[in-house]
Amino acid sequence: MLADEYRDVLSPQSSLDIIPIEWLHLTMQGIGFVDQVPQPEVDAIVEAARVRCAALSPMKLSIGMPHVDSESIQIAVQPAEPVRQLRSAIRAAIADVWGDDRVPEAAEPYNPHMSLAYINAPGPGAPLVQMLDDAPQITADALVASCQLIVLNRDEGMYVWEPYATITLGG
């Protein structure tokens, strides 16, 4: 698996918290804190997202070519446009329930990516960039046929979650 290959390269770096396989993800869109969003509203957003995502096709993505970001080691996702369309559909579902002015988070900038590791200490980025430049350049293909609404926590430097609802792309 692509993440395992890069995990071998990244794991010797003490400045990185490597993301376990089960927590790899494409970040889409937040809704709000669990204690601040009533469950009936969450359920209405899920249903609106089901309707909007039924119009989208499953996405064939190529994943590869990691790079250093200010907070993480990320892998580019190509083509980006289907991921952007999915995020737009989710944002529109939130607007269906709450109105355009209550959709959290700015629409842009949005950079579709999968994070491999979080940077846990300040320091120069050049050694990390060089490490990735020296690593084998591998890619993988993925078919994304669904997305999940999750209950998210950040424990011990890592995002972890429980699925709340799974939404199929293409109905």
Which features would summarize this protein structure in a list?
171 residues, alpha+beta, five-stranded antiparallel sheet, two-stranded antiparallel sheet, 32% strand
Summarize the structure.
This protein has four helices and seven strands, in the order αβαββαβαβββ. The protein has 171 residues and is of the alpha+beta class.
Overview of this protein structure:
- It is built from four helices and seven strands; from the N terminus they run αβαββαβαβββ.
- By secondary structure, it is an alpha+beta fold.
- The protein has a five-stranded antiparallel β-sheet with strand order 1-4-3-2-5. Strands 6-7 form a two-stranded antiparallel ribbon.
- α2 (39-53) packs across α3 (81-98).
- It is globular, with a radius of gyration of 17 Å.
- The model has no long low-confidence stretch (mean pLDDT 90).
Helix/strand order: HEHEEHEHEEE
Major sheet characteristics? 5 strands, antiparallel
Helical content stands at 25-40%
Got a strand count? 7
N- to C-terminal distance: 29 Å
Radius of gyration of CA atoms, rounded to a whole number: 17 Å
pLDDT average, as an integer?
Answer: 90
How many helix segments? 4
Unreliable stretches: none
**How is the largest sheet built, in terms of strand order?**
1-4-3-2-5
Shape: globular
Strand content: 25-35%
Helix-and-strand structural type? alpha+beta
